[in-house]
Amino acid sequence: MYTSFYTAAQGVVAQQKRMDVVANNMANINNYGYKSKNATFFELMHYNLNNAQGEDTTIQAGTGTILTKTNTDFTPNAIHPTESPYDFAIQGPGFFMLQNPNNNEITYTRNGRFSLSQRGDTFFLVNDNGNYVLNKNGQPIQVADGTLSAEIGVYRFNVLDGMLSVGDNEFQPTPKNGNPILDANAEIKDHALEASGVDLAQEMSQVIESQRAYSYAMRMVQTSDEIVGTINTLRQ
User: What sign has the CA pseudo-torsion 190, 192, 193, 194?
Assistant: First the structure.
């Protein structure tokens, strides 16, 4: 009974976290270059039930599930034309490389909505967070009279699974992803942006699934609590 109570409670927590992931996707449905995420669950420990003589049986009981990570779908999405000369979209796989001007931290993004930032007498191509957009040599791109000083670099990774989302639609590689590889043949379209990768219909179906699972788990919590309360009453 106590096991059923904690198993159900674990299920409630897991479904709440899944709803948080879905809600984040839906909140970014109009965010250019956003890549949707999905929750990945892992089953907790199983154990065999004993018979009346205390011997193991083939019947197993579990202790619930836990959300272990969120996977990101990096599939390229549709490209929409814009009027800004500093909007860029990658046609195919790959990332724009960004550099934080304050700490030189490198991040990667698919969101090509860039603008100009003046540092001294020089204008640089930056993203919405003010990070430099880097060229094929990993250097900030200067802009003079609307002309870029160098071509924008596109970088890819042999392994995408496990890339760390650092917020603001930016990612950092982990040792699993390896070093960035310059894609010299990447095609970049100007006056265009990549649409968000969120599929509203799919997200709504996950909302319904999570709501039902949450409801069943809550009912199990309530039933287990009622049974424990009844047993305690009988003991008195």
Answer: negative
pTM for this entry? 0.80
Q: Cα 3 to chain center, whole Å?
A: 32
Residue whose C-alpha is closest to residue 66's, from 1, 2, 22, 6: 6
226 vs 86, more confident: 86
Nearest to 20 by CA among 74, 73, 70, 75: 70
Helix (H, G, I), strand (E, B) or coil at 158: coil
- How many DSSP H helices and E strands does the chain contain? 2, 19
In Å, what is the CA distance from 85 to each residue of 11, 32, 75, 125, 191? 49, 16, 25, 11, 5
| Mean pLDDT taken over the chain | 88
According to the model, what pLDDT value does residue 47 have?
Answer: 67
